[in-house]
Amino acid sequence: MSQTILLADDDKDDADIFQQALRAVAPTIGFSHVDNGSAIFDYLNNEKNARPTVIFLDLNMPEMNGWQCLAKIKNEKKFESIPIIIYTTSSNPREYEIARDLNAHGLITKPTDPKILKKVLGIVTANLETKQLREAVKEAYLMTRE
Amino acid sequence: MLEVNGKLQTGYFNYTYKALRRPNGEIYGIHHMSVDVTEQVLYKLKLVESEAAVRRLFEQTPVGIGILKGESLIIENVNAAMLSYAGRKYEEVINQPLFNVIPEIEGQGIKEIAEHVYNSGIPYTSPEARIKLFRNGKMETIYLHFAFQPRRDEYGNITGLMVIANEITALVNARKRVEKNEQLFKNLANSMPQVVWIAEIDGTASYYNNRVREFSGAQRLEDGGWTWEWRVHPEDMKASTEAWNYAVKNLTAYQQEHRVMMTNGAYRWHLSRAYPFQSDEGIKWYGTSTDVHDQKVLEMGLENLVRDRTMALERSNDDLEQFAHVASHDLKEPLRKIKTFAYKLKDELQSTLGEDGNAYLNKILHSTDRMYAMINGVLHYSSIRAIDHIPHTVDLNSVIKNILQDLEILIQEKKASINFQQLPAVKGISALLYQLFYNLINNSLKFSKENIPNVIDIRSSEIDLKGLQYVEIIITDTGIGFDESYAEKIFATFVRLHPKDKYEGTGLGLALCKKIVERHGGFIFAQGDKNIGAEFTVLLPK
Question: Is this complex's ipTM strictly greater than 0.90?
């Protein structure tokens, strides 16, 4: 079954870098990108779109912020099972805990070094749709924590 | 003395002896008659006895009594007391008309009173009559409590007067003295610019001076005194009442500042004070209320100024913190991009860039990292205040141990040796104390001499400063040191003593140390010798 990663991030550069890294590490995995919170729901509710295997969710988006999106997605029966990884520039350890409290699979800090991003995506993609995904995200988090 | 019915008794007999004669006058016998007159005699004796008793009473009573006969009030009898009041002798006045023997009494109204009592039969009493009499060789003013009573015969006709008198001069004089003193007190009290008051032992006010008329709720009483309802500002009422009740209950001094309503309806600040005093009449409270409105307003104005300034300062601190938070985040964003793309350049275009290109990129990356550090440093420094942790006992030994562990790599790199003895515990916030000593030790390591291993000593002792106990921690190193003239400057923000390429640093490390130490109520200072070493002393309250 083909897997897709949905990235919600309003920063175009970050989205490009993410896509490039992903393509380098896991070329068979699909990639979709939205640039704000409500667009996520448009994407998800659109039958034509592939259901994401995982959602990378940026926190600092306009209109709806990442936490609100997270809560909303997890509240909908249809989508609550999709793993969500908070993807943020902030390195505040508190946010890692909040992410866990709100039922995200974890939090990853956006690495500045694309090499590290590739490592991160490598670990995550290797564990998609497995029980080890949470552990993998944690490992990635520790790697990115500066 | 006879024996009657077996008992010896005294009897009285009238013996009569009469000569018995024959018709020719010859005495042929004696007629002896004895009449038992014991009863009559005893009765008479009793009368005499009573009379004597009355006479004794009359003579000895301290109340002056005079018995006057007829319209001209002849002095039939007068006792010693009355004589002493009048300053006359018995022989001088007995059987004389009253007003003949005390002529100086003329014109003082006594004669008229006596005549009125004699004529109307209505008794007269004067509880306190001021009379001028000539006695002891001079005119004296005395006070008498006296009464005129009509004397009647068995038919009810007035036959004379009885006069009874009590001299109360001493009593009256004493009372007048007291009145005079009271008046003196009242005059003094009324002349004072404060409200003066007296209260009974139970706290109820019994006197106010005239100044109280300026208070709203003050009322003049019939006797000229004052009452006052406590028209105190509602916000001050509770505290004032409680304080007064407490003082009254415990007999402790009372002092209270409160707003009192004046007659014009405005409130003015007053300082009320009272003390309990023991007097003959028991415990009384003596108090004053002084108008302190103007001073108070000035004082409050100043307080407000200070408070406003403090609030403004706090606000600006909060703003600063918020700003710092936002600014640091927004400032870091572009940095992040710079780094990311610099990395990409390096990774993807390594060969095209060549050695120089790579070197430039490294410099870019390096500068970016420094910028990150600066921003984080500023953020950290400004957020110190926000940490409101509760102070607890911190074991400095474990703090240092953790620091040494975290700095392991740097220590190895610098080939430094760190010695520390058993350190005491202090009261503080462990996270901040960690930061404090981390910065100091990190500095020591950072500023090591190039090829000479740094020896860092940490020792402690307890000292007494101005009566308070402190723990003194001294960190000495054999690094590059600094010129003694910079000993104070180095604690200022953004001060660096070396070019940024030689020794990394934001210039905030020691400033942060100082802030943390001050937050704990302690002191920090430094000593240095250029090229020899440095010594940092930290004092923390125990």
Answer: no
